[in-house]
Structures are given as C-alpha cells and as structure tokens.
C-alpha cells in the first residue's frame, strides 16, 4: 500500500480516495479525503485534481469534492448489476404495488450483501438497507438466501470463524442457529427473518437464478414484524421466479419440476399453507 | 496521453480501459480492450489485472473482462445521480402507472443528455434512450429542457457551431429552429417533441429544480406520436414539480408564484388548454 511511483500504487491510491466517500458524507474536503485514505495531503490533492479532470470526481461551489456522474456512467453502462436490475424492475414494482414498505434486490459481494435496488414507500417499517449499501450475509433475509447458495468454503468460513454480529436477540449469530437457518432456506426456497436486523421489521427473500441455475441475486421485502407477513411469502417467491425466468432460467425450472430434487425453491406449488 | 510512468497517465489509461466497455459489449478480451483504449496489450493486461485485483473489473468463466459490481458500488453509494434518482422514483413510478410506455430522468453531462433512470413497459413505443446512455442535447425533449436552462455560453456554442445531427426531418437541427424550440421550452415550462428522435415517438419533458432554483434534471416521457400525447403534458409537469419539491425547491415555487416572472415553468396553472 505504501509503495510510491509504481502504476499499481497510483490505482490503489485512487481506489482509496473513492472509498472515502459514503452516502452520509458525499462531499469531502481534500484534507478529509487525505485523512480517510491515509494519503499525504499533497498526494491526495494531486490525485483528486486528476480525478476531477477526468470527471470521476467533481468540485462543488464550496470546493468540496464529490463523486462525479461520469464515474457512475462508466460503472453503470456495462454493469451486470444494472442489467440484473433492469430485468428485475417490473417484478420489483409489482411487489411494491401490492406489499408496499420496502422491496429490494441484492447480490453477494465477497462476505457481504450489496443492495443494488430498493423501492420504499413513505411511512414504511424501519429498514437499514440502502441502494449501494451493504449488510453482513448472516443477518438479513437477502443475505441468508445468498449465503445458503454461496460456495461451501465461504459458508464454512463464516460458520466456523469470527463472532458474528447480533443486531437483535433474534439474529442467528451463533453457528448452530445459522446452520439451521441456511438449511431451512435451501429446503423451503426462501428466507423468513422476523426481527433479525431490527425487532420491528421482518425480512422475506427468495433466490434469483440465471440461465445456468446459479443463484445470482436475492429478491426480498422488509415488512412489519407481525403475523400478516406470512402472506407475503408467495408474492416474493413468485417475483423471484419471474426475475429468474427473465434472466433465462426456464430450463432450470423444468429440470427441477421433473422431480430430480426435492424441495429447494424448485417446487411447483407455493407454500401458501406454511 | 502517451506519457509513461507518471501518476497521471496511469489513471488516464485506467479511464480509457473503463471507457472500452459499453452496454452492447459488456464483456471484452484483453486484446480487444487494448485495441479500443489504444494501449499496448502488455500495458492493458497489467492494468486490467490490477483493476481486477481491486474488484473494479472482473473476469468471467470465459476469461472475458467485465465491469465489476465494486466499481458500481463505489460510483453509486455517494453519487448525486443516485440521490436525485431516489427522490424522483416515487414520481416516476406514478407517471409510469398512468402513462405507461417510457418514463425517464436525465441530467446534463457536458454537451449531452445522460439518462439516469428509465422505466419502460412491454410493448412501448420505440425509444433510443438507456439508463447510463446518452443523447445529444438538441434532439430529445429532456435534452431541450436541459439545454434551455444550460449556461448561455454552452447554448451559443451549440447554436453557432458544428452541424447538429438530424434524426428525422422533425429534429430541430438548424439553429433558428432550435433557438425557437428553446424559447418555447422556457416560455411554456416543458418541451414537446413530436418525432424529433424517431417518427413514431413523441417526447415530453419538464425541468426538475433543486433548492436554489437551478435546473438539475429533466423528467420526461416517450409516448406514441399522436394527438393523445398532449394530455400527458400536465402529468409530466406535475411530476417534475413534485420531484423539485422533494429536492427542496419550495421557495422557488413561491417566489415565482408571487409574480416576479411571467411564464416559464413557474405558472401555478397547468397548460390543460394547450
């Protein structure tokens, strides 16, 4: 990280500068950028100037630095996240019309959930997720869906490793509990998470598969933590299936319907009676 | 562009690599990236490897390179485009529910329109815009709204400079015609563009203002090019006003309503009789 002059370190430093910006603090002074990125002010100042010249950062009228729309454009126009989001959007809108509150689409990035879309209504239940925001895999319904279908070695690392954060007394932060949750997600085809992130909120999420059958995203809702939430399960599962179809996952549906596996999210009937 | 070893050129080359990816060709080989970015294959290969190490690019199973979700995350989480889009989304959804076809939100980036959001319905009229895609300012309804409120020197440069592209015989590509269009946008408070980009499509857009009263975006629709489109004008204007309010533009509305200016998009009544 501290090598100077090489091509690698310039890019690494530019990435550290971009990492300094957050949704809560989107406008930073150069000295604050330097502090957060661990760079000398002179180095940060020179790199910021160059990033501004390319439009990747912009300076506002107070001389504070912000992320530029040009960076968003470069990141978005060929982004798999945007393609996924565009295919999913009609289904997300449909769920949002019926369920209200929060409807969201998430992918796994390393050991975290990254939310690529969220639709919210005024007066919705509390929800910590944000577009382009992250949560740990074990705590949210989207995370549990993605973790349940993640490579086994990642799952085992999380299950056997560091202590996991308990957001509430319901968060499955202990390994045996988390293991049981993941088994339930694979068996039932969805995650049902009452009060895992906040006592008042309940998350429900189902897997989105691509044409190869691989789970590439989770579609979920965050609704009030009460008995009425169960009725939302088939809505979420249907929408997740719809997005999967839109991504070309038809063949997978057929294969699973033919009965080669039991349960999972391949069942042709919805768990209306759960 | 051809200096070697300096910090500037590494970033410039990385930007050129990112620019190689498009929505139509999101997966490229390293040699194709080198060709498009004008870099030696060895240079491109080394930079791609480093961008992959940072997660800004990813390699797929065929060894083709794509834009990484991490880049989207860094670009999006503190992006003004995302904040604008989040505030606008409930209004865009409302318009989409009522009007169907395409509803979009655009900002000006230099001398072009950049579309930051688009909602479309199946079977909608033809539309060339895409999320994170661009169009010239003079051709589309969103572009005319943004150009009408752009700095005067930019407007004069476009009006007096190079020949402008005519997409159809209705595109205001000639200066006097374009000048008249821009005056009409400022007078009426919206742009109404029958067949400007495609004979079968009609664009309507209205300005979105921030708390300072500055026009920061255009909210528009693309609908079939027929007489029924006029009825959509008040819907678009109302939604654009709604987004402006959500961005804190109340004071501007009050100031204009008090009668200090005539016309513009400040009128309290909608042009239902136009």
TrEMBL record, chains A, B:
Biological classification of the source: Bacteria, Bacillati, Actinomycetota, Actinomycetes, Kitasatosporales
Keywords, alphabetical: DNA-binding, Transcription, Transcription regulation
Entries under PROSITE patterns matching the protein: HTH_ICLR (PS51077), ICLR_ED (PS51078)
Alphabetical list of InterPro entries matching this protein: GAF-like_dom_sf, HTH_MetabolicPath_Reg, Tscrpt_reg_IclR_C, Tscrpt_reg_IclR_N, WH-like_DNA-bd_sf, WH_DNA-bd_sf
IclR-ED domain ranges (all copies): 70-249
Name of the protein in question: IclR family transcriptional regulator
Domain named HTH iclR-type: residues: 8-69
